[in-house]
Amino acid sequence: ALLLGAVCGLLAGLLCYYVLTVRLRPGKEITLAIKRGQFYVVYQPVVESETMKIRGVEVLMRWNHPTAGEIPPDAFINFAEAQQLIVPLTRHLFELIARDAPALKKMLPPGAKLGINIAPAHLHAESFQQDLRDFSAMLPANYFQLVLEITERDMLNQHLAMKLFEWMHHEGYEIAIDDFGTGHSALIYLERYAFDYIKIDRGFINAIGTETVTSPVLDAVLTLARRMKLVTVAEGVETPEQAAWLREHGVNFLQGYWISRPLTLEKLQQAHREPAKY
Ligand code: C2E
Ligand code: CA
Ligand code: CA
Ligand code: CA
User: Fold this and answer.
1) Ligand number with the minimum distance to the CA of 78
2) What is the per-residue pLDDT for 152?
3) In this structure, what are the phi and psi dihedrals at residue 243, rounded to the nearest 5 degrees?
4) Which ligand lies nearest the alpha carbon of 41?
């Protein structure tokens, strides 16, 4: 019976492996999807809290899959990383942004920030610096300010991260620590690295304006940011109450559905023509 169990287990394992790697071939799918133009980007406005004027956009990737429909990035970025495909996928993203850049330039003020999410596997890839340089060369010269959005979990190799950050600043990129407050050693990282922005995770913003008291962690984060003279961006702002609270508490930039959903280039242009939207 034991042997039978072991054989069954093995067969089940093999079947699972077959389905995952041969039938679905996620790696091959991503490569094909790049070729077939199934990926596209959306842009989510980031506004200055004092004026509500647009100061930049965060670029977010989408996969329009022929049978599965819209696949959100949370579902394919990790896959791409595991399959060693994050570099080609991000290069593709860079091309998509470069293609939109002339149109973006018409809508956004000089110095507008383009927030790009960098996956940890890419940060640690050998080609990272060259990839960024190639991307910059594809954009209109001296117009946009690139902001690389990086999460805490990407900085496990502290020595490498420190050197990379130094290089990025030297090359004129800005760095945002993304999803701030959701990791473990956040405060230590703040001391150690020279971030330009902290993006406060939407989990903290959610709590504002509900019957529960505002998170003491959020209060602490804001106090700390002020004392360290860090520029703050609130993510996931969904109500005017939240926006008002954040403005009163000195948060510099706001991003979220209440300001604007992530928009395709066409929708962004439309919103630009009807500025009442912001
Ligand atoms: P993120 O960097 O934290 O991006 C913000 C996410 O919050 C986006 O989800 C955005 O659509 C969503 N969001 C914005 N405002 C609101 C709001 O008011 N309420 C709620 N509930 N959600 C809001 P999205 O586009 O599904 O992206 C999820 C994550 O996938 C991103 O989180 C980012 O970590 C990753 N990602 C997206 N695009 C890329 C990419 O091009 N490269 C890499 N490496 N990662 C990406
Ligand atoms: Ca981000
Ligand atoms: Ca985030
Ligand atoms: Ca996130």
Assistant:
1) 1
2) 75
3) -60, -45
4) 1
